[in-house]
Write a structure and sequence with these properties.
Elements (H helix, E strand, L loop, with lengths): L1 E7 L2 E7 L8 H16 L5 E6 L22 H10 L4 E5 L2 E3 L1 H8 L2 E5 L3 E3 L13 H9 L1 H10 L3 E2 H7 L4 E3 L3 H11 L21 H15 L5 H14 L2 H16 L2 H15 L22 E4 L3 H12 L4 E4 L3 H24 L5 H4 L3 E4 L10 E4 L5 H14 L5 E4 L6 H5 L8 E6 L8 E6 L5 H13 L3 E6 L6 H17 L4 H11 L5 H8 L1 H10 L15 E2 L2 E2 L3 H7 L26 H13 L9 H21 L6 H11 L9 H8 L1 H14 L10 H8 L20
Parallel strand pairs: 2-3, 3-4, 4-6, 5-7, 6-9, 10-11, 10-13, 11-12, 13-14, 14-15, 16-17
Antiparallel strand pairs: 1-2, 7-8, 15-16, 18-19
Helix pairs in contact: 1-2, 2-3, 4-5, 4-9, 5-9, 8-9, 9-10, 11-25, 12-13, 18-24, 19-24, 24-27
Bound molecules: 3-hydroxybutanoyl-coenzyme A and 1,4-dihydronicotinamide adenine dinucleotide.
EC number: 1.1.1.35, 4.2.1.17, 5.3.3.8
Keywords: Acetylation, Fatty acid metabolism, Isomerase, Lipid metabolism, Lyase, Multifunctional enzyme, NAD, Oxidoreductase, Peroxisome
Pfam families: 3HCDH, 3HCDH_N, ECH_1
Length: about 725
Amino acid sequence: MAAFSYICDSVAVITMSNPPVNALSSALIRAVQKAVEEAIGDFAVEAIVIRGDKGKFSAGADIREFNRLERGPPLVSLIDLIEDSKKPVVAAIEGVALGGGLELALGCHYRIAHAQAYVGLPEVLLGLVPAAGGALRLPRLIGISATLSMITTGKYVQAREALKLGIVDKVVGENTVDEAIQLAKKVIGQPLGSRQLSTLPVQCPPNVEAFLDEAMVKVKKQFRGAQSPLACVEVLRAAVQLPYLEGKKKERELFQFLYTTDQTRAQQYAFFAEREVAKWTLPSGASWKTASPQPIRTAAVIGLGTMGRSIVTSLAKAKIPVIALEQDKKQLDIGSKAVMSLLDREILKMEQLGHTEFTNSLGPVQFTLDYGKLRDVDIVIEAVFENMALKKEIFRHLSGICKPEAFLCTNTSGLDIDEMASVTNRPQMVIGTHFFSPAHIMKLLEVVHGHYTSSTTISTAMRLAKMLGKVGVLVGNCPSFVGNRLMRLYVEQAVFLVEEGSKPEEIDRALEDFGLAMGPFRMMDLAGLDIGWKARTEIGLTGPKLPIGTPARQRGSKRYSPLPDILCEKGRFGQKSGQGWYKYEKSGGRNAMPDPWLYNFLSEYQRIHNLKTHYVTQEEIIERCLYVLINEGFKVLEDGIASGPEDIDVIYNNGYGWPKYTGGPMYYASIVGLPVVLTKLEKYYGANPDIPDLKPSSFLKKLVSKGNPPLKEWRSHLGFQSSML
Ligand code: 3HC
Ligand code: NAI
């Protein structure tokens, strides 16, 4: 680790080096400080350029040092030193300038960025606020409104947008450091006052107080329950109301407060968990280190329905040429129009951000009905109806057509990967790539490993996730895999609570107040109640295949709620039909309104089935819905379907709108305390013995008996022999 410098024509070039992302560790800060002091004191130096080693400026403060007790030198004083320098300092930004990295660049007098570079203040995503003057200098450069949007969302801004906003002075296609040296030479001797951001006034809209009040209301609504976005608005208020130095004090105070909260610990855990899941290992010893992914130069998608069209868009956004195939001309026309409209929207978004070259940077999409066109693609992703017979027919067909090296993937939400693989001539190259809707937006890819799947196939699918900008999580093959397996029980519990006397809107509110992006009833209405109904009909839980004489509210020895089936029989499919658990202004409407019809219907249902209702508290809603999900999480670990609690958390944080500031369901359980979760499950199971999913899992019991070990030790209590991975 070093900050080394060389002098080029009177310009000192200081290189920050701390692989892999030049995080500003204590040692690096110290080294840069020393190099800057030397350059300032050196008569031969007239200007300074700061750059990052290996094409990355800096990813900000070293997050790994956050938990250390001893503090290193403050980044703030280094940045002040740079800004106060009488010799011009130019930041040469390649790769990323994030968090403290961007704050350091904002302390420089000029900033040049490579066209592919990103800048941002993502501290909020770690439950923090920018702590080295970023939220004080940025509004002095680009104004309150643009700063607000950047610091409350933590979004990464590409160089061209940064130029448009005024964050960087110039964007170059190559030789960023040389350009920075040229600029530094050009400005030698010029006054720097207007380039010292901390000395400038904040750029405010006319009624800035009202603007900030409104921002606070919006942010509260948008990031329900999260503390750090609110603190970001507070820092901005300080930037507006206080002189720079006092603003700095306020920034420090807020940072120090957030630094001690559970939310920041949970978000840091979530950050590292996302990186951890990429490092998969199989009991056979194969792992991300030893397996080599094969190149994916071209892809095909079969079926252009809800999922297929957004998978095509996701591939095109990653510049992978795609062949999109449908079953007949009519579906192809509908599907191709849908894809083109999604791509147009993407282009528009990018153009608005100043990326004029984006149109050409989308991968080409070719639409076809001809399977023959799939002969040479590297990977095929099947996204047809959720029907095993149809999927097997397609896999058999692909097997005969595709080149032997082509990987065959299925987007099934939960069917058996091995059964599909068994009809192909390459079962080792068959894998589940379970995208989430809409696939071009959602960050999660569940990569489902079948019995025959080779490590090369796994590593190729994991690489695909990365290419698409997604987090790939490797899971084993079982009905509904990990995400949907847990989700089904959570939703079922919510429906039981309605039978027991609660209302859909009460349950949704309780879970949304907990932080979930959407409660279960609004989610079912959005996804379409008919999807689950079809699946239950197909497996004989309802409909013509259900044996005559089956009790309405029982399947085997388990409680069953026919409520969702009855709603579907009445044509209430959710948003698409204008009615479901809620009513909507019209078919396809989005405003969920409580429906008096449903209340009458539920009373009648409770009367017919002789149900005793009770007052369901918010506590019971949260505990029953979330603990049943968590309990299944422990079973998934026990079954070896996920290799660790981090995998489940990453799936829930990125695919199911779980609030990241609680870390994910398993991390949340560890914070609540496993003995508490166990006791509550025992209580609810005792009261509802016909819901076996509430019965505490043996792995949960084992962990409690081992003294409630911290989450990072849970894996060591799992037997390897049970692993399906
Ligand atoms: N500190 C320490 N380690 C970091 C880091 C950071 N700021 N950023 C990334 N890393 C590590 C990752 O943990 C990973 O380690 P591993 O190889 O041991 O798993 C390695 O760097 C590579 O990271 P990725 O796998 O994420 O690599 P990518 O190339 O996909 O992404 C990135 C690179 C865009 C920089 C991404 O890592 C990222 O977004 N990092 C977070 C940046 C961030 O949040 N910065 C703010 C820090 S807080 C701060 O600066 C406070 C300030 O206001 C004082
Ligand atoms: P959909 O019903 O919207 O689309 C399926 C498409 O497949 C239709 O356009 C149909 O014409 C086409 N198709 C059917 N047979 C075909 C054939 N022989 N050749 C080519 N195309 C054919 O279905 P949806 O929702 O897109 O689901 C697709 C798959 O993705 C299913 O396996 C589903 O379980 C899974 N999935 C769905 C999610 C969702 O939110 N809808 C989420 C994640 C996975």
